[in-house]
Amino acid sequence: xxxxxxxxxxxxxxxxxxxxxxxxxxxxxxxxxxxxxxxxxxxxxxxxxxxxxxxxxxxxxxxxxxxxxxxxxxxxxxxxxxxxxxxxxxxxxxxxxxxxxxxxxxx
Length: 107
What we know:
Blueprint: H1 3-14, E1 21-26, H2 35-41, E2 47-52, H3 58-61, H4 63-85, H5 95-106
Parallel strand pairs: 1-2
Helix pairs in contact: 4-5
Protein name: DDE-1 domain-containing protein
């Protein structure tokens, strides 16, 4: 995520859906370490406590990102590659196809 994306997300998404006091837990990516950028995006009258997840702790704090979703994405990629390789007539980009693919992976 670039600095511009973070600013847009904070202004147009995050602050529209939270109260006057909120806690924001963020990763330790370089973009998020720019405290001046984060402080500039906070509207007046809002109080935000920013908590940074320490580096190299994703397996401890977000185990689904490391184990569950990794396997899920790998399985989806294999199905997608199979459809492309065998030239199966299917529009995988359409909403209905995406839902069916996710349902197949889930089951």
